[in-house]
Design a protein that fits this description.
206 residues, Rossmann fold, 25% strand, 8-stranded mixed sheet
């Protein structure tokens, strides 16, 4: 992911988290975003991170971070414990994102989800014309080393959200660190969404 896009995404997330919100950051990395939310928005933040080195860095920032695999479930969190659950550049790396996103709506009132857009024109060009697995500035991995398990586009995500019964409260798109306003499925390198649940998902019992 371009550093300029990462900065844009981080600012977008901070803008969309309410003051003093209870926040869970799934796949929080070294805690840089969570630290900003605590300092700038007065958030009460908690993170989940699987990489031990990142957990140590986050704890050094004074953050509360759980070392573990979020895909094992969020059972240790009570219903509606958080105002916002954040998945920033995370869902495409999960084995079962649908299951975890549904569980996130049990513990959180709103979700912020950001992801690289695999429908970007450069990725399409490399796959469709050159016949090669895409490797772009936004997707800087070879096929054999990529952490991405799922390849979704803006249109894929919006169809999925609608089918799950989630309302899109706001959305944004970015390329080369600048906002994309037209044809995001073709032109955006990454997408950001703020969502809430309209109806409980089929597997939930609450």
């Amino acid at each position: 992911m371009r550093e300029s896009n990462r900065k844009f995404i981080e600012e977008w997330i901070i803008e969309h988290v309410p003051e003093r919100a209870r926040v869970l950051d799934v796949g929080c990395g070294d805690g840089a975003l969570l630290e900003r939310l605590v300092k700038e928005k007065g958030a009460r933040g908690t993170g989940i991170e699987i990489e031990e080195a990142n957990v140590r860095k986050a704890i050094q920032r004074g953050l509360s971070v759980h070392h573990g695999d979020a895909e094992e479930g969020l059972d240790h969190y009570a219903d509606d414990k958080f105002d916002v659950v954040i998945f920033s550049l995370t869902i495409q790396e999960l084995g079962h994102p649908q299951r975890l996103l549904r569980e996130a709506f049990r513990v959180g009132k709103q979700l912020i989800v950001t992801f690289p857009n695999f429908g970007h024109w450069q990725a399409r060009w490399q796959l469709g014309i050159l016949g090669r697995a895409p490797s772009t500035p936004c997707l800087p991995y070879t096929w054999f080393e990529t952490p991405n398990r799922h390849y979704l586009t803006v249109l894929d995500w919006e169809t999925f959200a609608r089918d799950e019964g989630w309302r899109i409260l706001d959305k944004g798109f970015v390329s080369c660190g600048r906002p994309v306003r037209f044809f995001p499925n073709l032109r955006a390198e990454a997408a950001m969404y703020l969502l809430e649940e309209i109806a409980p998902s089929p597997i939930q019992n609450h």
